């Protein structure tokens, strides 16, 4: 479990599938209101407090993103709960310190994200992707001192998905960053056809 602060009131938590497995939670369980998931959330908030000093007080907006081959990203924003007229609101006298007011948004992304420390590693993986005829697509971003390559598996032969992941993992590492975060906080270097464009403009 990795936790990082995005702003004063927002944190991002990256859960690997091993993190979920250790707690007896399946990916599909994150969509359900069950004790194990509540315990996991409490554990995440405790770790966020001890590592970052993040107080999970007041209403919390929780966004959960499922990522292929990497795990799940949970973004927690403090003080962003939207209360509708027909929603029940807890009275202060009924408040419990261990119960969070949450508005949960669940999304599943099929985009594969890998981070690379050096531009040479990006060029190397793109050359291999092209040589292996796995893909010439992709988007390239710069974020937090790393290069992030985003690939859409729907544009890749499904029978070769494992080969794609193995190749990417040889040069980089899976990242918990989502495209939404990259577009907001990162820099777009190549918006489409990144593998093709890099192989076209750089000699190896």
UniProtKB/TrEMBL annotation:
Superkingdom per UniProt: Bacteria
Gene3D superfamilies per record: 3.30.70.1950
InterPro entries named among the record's database cross-references: MecA_C_sf, Neg-reg_MecA
Family statement: Belongs to the MecA family.
UniProt cross-references to NCBIfam families, sorted A to Z: PRK02899.1 (NF002781)
Stored PANTHER family: ADAPTER PROTEIN MECA, ADAPTER PROTEIN MECA 2
Protein name: Negative regulator of genetic competence
Organism, as annotated: Paenibacillus curdlanolyticus YK9
């Amino acid at each position: 479990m990795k936790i990082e602060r995005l702003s004063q009131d927002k944190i991002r938590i990256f859960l690997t599938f091993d993190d979920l497995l250790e707690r007896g939670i399946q990916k599909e369980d994150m969509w359900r209101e069950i004790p194990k998931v509540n315990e996991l959330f409490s554990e995440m908030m405790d770790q966020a407090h001890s590592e970052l000093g993040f107080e999970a007080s007041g209403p919390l907006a929780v966004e959960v993103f499922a990522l292929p081959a990497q795990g799940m990203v949970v973004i927690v924003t403090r003080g962003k709960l939207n209360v509708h007229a027909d929603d029940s609101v807890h009275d202060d006298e009924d408040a419990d310190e261990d119960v969070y007011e949450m508005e949960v948004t669940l999304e599943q992304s099929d985009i594969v994200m890998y981070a690379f420390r050096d531009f040479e590693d990006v060029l190397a993986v793109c050359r291999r992707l092209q040589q292996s005829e796995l893909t010439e697509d992709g988007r390239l971003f710069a974020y937090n001192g790393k290069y992030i390559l985003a690939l859409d598996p729907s544009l890749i032969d499904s029978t070769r998905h494992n080969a794609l992941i193995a190749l990417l993992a040889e040069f980089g590492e899976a990242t918990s960053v989502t495209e939404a975060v990259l577009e907001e906080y990162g820099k777009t270097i190549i918006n489409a056809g990144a593998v093709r464009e890099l192989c076209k403009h750089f000699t190896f």
